Amino acid sequence: MRGHDTGSETTFSVTFHGVRGSTPCHGNDIMRYGGNTSCVSVLTPSSQPILFDLGTGLRYFGKECLTRDTKFVGTCLLTHSHFDHTQGLPFFAPLLNEETVLTVRGPVQDDGMTLQAVFDKLVSPPLFPVGLSHIPGTISFVDTSNSDFMIDDVHVKARSIPHVGATLGFRIELNGKSIAYLSDHQQPTDGSHGISDGARELVEGADLLIHDSQFTPQEFAVKSTWGHCTAEYAVWVATTHGVKNLALFHHDPSRSDDALDASAACLAAIGKAAGCNVFVASEGLNFRL
Known about the structure:
By secondary structure, this protein is of the alpha/beta class. It contains seven helices and 14 strands.
């Protein structure tokens, strides 16, 4: 899976496979936006696939991969180790092929636990039927901190951002186009609109920003220390830092399709006035740059 045809003038083809935060969910009231947790794939014409996070949406990306090839070679940029961003890994079907190689780059825990140790703990009895060593494909874990590196010809910037526990945000760049991914981002707990230096560096002038928008202002007043932000804050981040397109992401599992529609209508108008296209991410949505 290298060098996909993403269209003659497309640099990045971005597909949302899971857009929820906290826990997967289902029901008639969320069918349009979907109930799987965080997973986004990025394809380019010339590099290996890049994934943002390994939530339950990863299973559906894996099914798509099998329609093209039984093996997979690619890299995941993992923001942090919470369940809603990791639990899709053992259900990624291409890992059943011993030729698959998945590189996972993510943060070391605040107590020093490595990324490898985190997943050895997560994917092992009694929490999971077998350990990682029983999975035929190769999974390479790379501890990553504030750094810049390359994935083939894609430049990656990783920066620590405020959340609960060690968390990274990412920015990828190719051919003058850029995507910033801040799936879980703590708004200042007093409800104000400040931003850390690391987060600002990631989002400044991005062509596409995929950003946490879990809470309403009323919910944030009660859950201000839970590591997330409001959709209004996400719009502020985008419109004050020259972002061209903002995907509202990491929807609360209690947020219905109708509620997301209402939020989109209001916030899109605010974004448009500031020159930013604001939309709500949904499962299966493809966005091209």
